[in-house]
Structures are given as structure tokens and as C-alpha cells.
Amino acid sequence: MFSIDSNQFYSLLGEYTGARDEFSKKIEIINTNISKFMSEVDRFLDDNPEIKNLLNEEENKNVDMDELSDINVIIQNEVISEQHTTDQELSSSVELVPVGEVEEIIDSEIDQEREKKLRDLYRKIVKITHPDKTLDQILHELYIQATGYYNEKDLLSLFYLCYKLGISFSVDSVEVEELNERTSDFRSKNKFLDNNLTLVWLYSDKKERVILDYILSQIRGKRMNRMFR
Predict the structure, then answer these.
(1) Domain that holds residue 161
(2) Burial of 154 (C-beta count, 10 Å sphere; 0-12/13-18/19+)
(3) Would 86 be classed as within a structural domain?
(4) What is the distance between the alpha carbons of residues 18 and 33, in angstroms, rounded to a whole number?
């Protein structure tokens, strides 16, 4: 029979939510500052016409500009796409591959068990946090969070809210494995985002160097694209 120390599991939950929230915050910062970064790139080009002319020359050499999206947008879209793909994979990580009728039955039962647990945890949280049950604004915020997690089928985040509210719950080995995998996944994404040029520029004390590196990468990209056309 599977068992895990409650303090150990709560610690894992804290690591998961920390990595998840860090990822969300970085995406928010990128979305907020990417236009500022690109405005500074334009300003730099205006102040350095020789570099701007070099970039324009590359643009006029029959390069398909549709294939040369902004680097920051590419990075951001890849991360968001990767998260969506990973979330789809993880949402089915408790399912057995349907090889035959028996597997399909088991698969359906596991889905039903997960749905039941999601529903039960959400109901327990609502009983404590719903505006009809309390005037506490902090609890109201947790209610909103819980509703979002429930709609997203985010069982792990509902676990964490239950922990914060002192609501008891049980976990199995599959859920612990999922928790570890998703924590690792968010950590990898956070490390990847650390190289996003908008973030690098925002926190750098050598902002013009970052801008120049971006422009040079655009020029190299156009040349490479032309080579393989």
C-alpha cells in the first residue's frame, strides 16, 4: 500500500506552486515589457544608422520576413505551446493506453476517480471560502483561485489550497509522480525563460549590449534563412 509522509508531500506541493508561480510571473513580465524592449531596439537603430542600414540591406535581399518573427515572441510562444502540450500529457498521465477493452475500462475508471477527487476537493474548499459562507476577503480570493483550478482540472493546485485551508485529503503514487514531473517541468521552463532577451535586457546593466546582440542575431538569422532557401 502506498504511503508518503504528510510533511514531505506538503513540501513537494510548496516546491510545485513556487515553480509554477515563478513561471507565470516571468511570462507576465515578458508580456509587459516586450514592447518597451522593441521600442528601445528601434531607438538604438535610429541612433546608429550604419547598423540600421546593414539590417535593412539584409531585409532587402529577398528574405521571407514572414518566417523571421521576433525572437522574444518565438521564445514566448514556444514556452506557452510547450506548457500546453505538457499539460495535455500530464492530464492524461494517470490513464492507461487503451490497447483493448480491459484497458479502456480501466482508463475510464481512472478518469472517473480523478474527476471525483477534483469535485470533492473543490466542494470542500467552496464550503469554507465561498462569499455566501464568509466575509473574509482573503478566503474569497482562494475561492476564485479554486474555481480556476477546478475548471483547469488542476488537481495539484487544489491539493495545495486544501493544505493552506487545513482540509484533509489523500494522495496516491500516481499523483506524487505527477507532482514531481510537473515541478521539474516548470523548473526547466523557468531556466529556459532566464535566457529570454526581454528579461535579459530588463535586468541587465548593459542594456545596449543586449540590444546589439539581438540585432546581430536578427542579421545572422536572415543570412542563415537565405542560405537554406
Answers:
(1) 6-227
(2) buried
(3) yes
(4) 22
| Number of structural domains the chain divides into | 1
* CA–CA gap between residue 218 and residue 199 (Å, rounded): 18
- The model's pLDDT over 16-42, given as tens digits with 9 standing for 90+, comes to 999 999 999 999 999 999 999 999 999
Distance separating alpha carbons of residues 184 and 110, to the nearest angstrom: 24
Contact 127, 167 (CB under 8 A): no
| Domain membership flag for residue 90 | yes
Residue whose entry in the numeric block shows the C-alpha cell 477546478: 150
Pairwise CA distance, residues 145 & 158, whole Å? 9
Within-domain flag for 97: yes
Q: 200: which DSSP letter?
A: H
Instruction: Please give the grid coordinates belonging to residue 226.
Output: 537565405
Tens digit of each residue's pLDDT (9 = 90 or more) over 171-226:
888 889 999 999 999 999 999 999 999 999 999 999 999 998 888 888 888 777 76
Q: Which three cell numbers stand for residue 50?
A: 550604419
Q: Is 104 helix (H, G, I), strand (E, B) or coil?
A: helix
Q: In the numeric block, which cell numbers belong to residue 188?
A: 526547466
Distance from C-alpha of 55 to C-alpha of 50, rounded to nearest angstrom: 9
Q: Does residue 1 form part of some domain?
A: no
Alpha carbons 80 and 85: distance in angstroms, whole number: 9
